[in-house]
TrEMBL record, chain A:
It is found in: Membrane; Plastid. It comes from Paulinella micropora. Belongs to the ATPase A chain family. InterPro entries: ATP_syn_F0_a_bact/chloroplast, ATP_synth_F0_asu, ATP_synth_F0_asu_AS, F0_ATP_A_sf. The chain crosses the membrane at residues 28-49, 88-108, 128-147, 184-206, 212-233. Pfam families: ATP-synt_A (PF00119). One of its GO terms (biological process) is proton motive force-driven ATP synthesis. It is a multi-pass membrane protein. The keyword ATP-binding does not apply. The lineage of its organism: Eukaryota, Sar, Rhizaria, Cercozoa, Imbricatea. This is ATP synthase subunit a, chloroplastic.
TrEMBL record, chain B:
It is found in: Cell membrane; Membrane. The chain crosses the membrane at residues 22-43. Belongs to the ATPase B chain family. F-type ATPases have 2 components, F(1) - the catalytic core - and F(0) - the membrane proton channel. F(1) has five subunits: alpha(3), beta(3), gamma(1), delta(1), epsilon(1). F(0) has four main subunits: a(1), b(1), b'(1) and c(10-14). The alpha and beta chains form an alternating ring which encloses part of the gamma chain. F(1) is attached to F(0) by a central stalk formed by the gamma and epsilon chains, while a peripheral stalk is formed by the delta, b and b' chains. Component of the F(0) channel, it forms part of the peripheral stalk, linking F(1) to F(0). The b'-subunit is a diverged and duplicated form of b found in plants and photosynthetic bacteria. CDD domains: ATP-synt_Fo_b. This is ATP synthase subunit G. It is a single-pass membrane protein. Keywords: ATP synthesis, Cell membrane, CF(0), Coiled coil, Hydrogen ion transport, Ion transport, Membrane, Plastid, Transmembrane, Transmembrane helix, Transport. Residues 57-113 form a coiled coil. The keyword Cell division does not apply.
Amino acid sequence: MVSLSFPFHIAELEVGQHLYWQIGHLNLHGQVFISSWVVIGALLTLIVLGTRKMERDPKGVQNLLEFLWDYIRDLAREQIGEKAYRDWLPFIGTLFLFIFVCNWGGALVPWKLVKLPSGELGAPTADINTTVAMALLVSLSYFYAGLSRKGLRYFEYYVEPTPIMLPFKIIEDFTKPLSLSFRLFGNILADELVVGVLAFLVPVIVPLPAMFLGLFTSAIQALIFATLAANYIGEAVHEEHH
Amino acid sequence: MTSWLLLAEAGAPEGGLFDLDATLPLMVIQVVLLTFILNGLFFRPIGKTVEDREGYISTSRADAKQKLAQVERLEAQLTEQLRGARQQSQQLITEAEQEVDRLYREALAMAQAEANTVREKSRQEIEIQKAAATQSLQVEADRLSNLIVDRLLASR
């Protein structure tokens, strides 16, 4: 836990402070749940507004939602393949949309207006628990996809081109979720820190380029997470034709 | 709300960047729940609309292609029929022209024949009259010559 403060208190910067909620003897990071509920609420509101009266000729919000759906479908279809993408489309789409609204919500919503007793509100994906949770879900899902589609033949994948690949493939099973979670966590937290430090040093105008870059990279991170998740699932259900 | 949060914070442990706690499983549950909610609200209805529309477009396109082919066939058929009708009408016209020609010639021939007969008749009549006149003249001439001869004979 680091805390810096300037003599005449324009800004403060702290990392690692959480708002703890307790359920029984378990601790929760309250700020993560508060901010994630806010962004999920915004997302669901948008979706409900857009799907209320569906027309053959879409306009407005329905058009936007259809564009998103098309985009996600192309992403899933390309990575997973024509046969199995339909089952995994909702999961991949949820990952993409959730991470996207978390990242952009974290960057755009004026969270500082709500003062918390400990810690502060920010992007839910700037917390290691969120990203590890999603990475573990991806791991589980690609195992489930492979096993449900191929049964125990799925484990042939480990010795696929040659049996020498076995240790590497086993290590991959650990590095995949690790890299997924840390890539997202690191990107979002680092963006928040950069903007925080810049605002701490020169509060006006100067942080803006970093904020725009942050919007761009966080959108790309959402896409990367979803694409990689789809890729792992696609790899697991992929039928080798030799 | 604030007091409850403060109460909750009361026995809080030290924070940290890599503080993994019960947030993790609850986040997992939250994302899974969100997947099902989004599936029902977003992926299924929008998916159905988009795929229905794509199906409608492809069937309408197939329909339109079929109709176009049909129209083209009909067009070819009709031009064919039109050509046949034109040829037929040409034929009828030439036949009618020939008929008219024939009738004209017949009428002409008939009129000429009639004119010939009339001319013949009048020529004959003229011949007869000429013959009659010549005859009477001959008689007169004979008489006159007889008279002349008589006078001549008488005067000697």
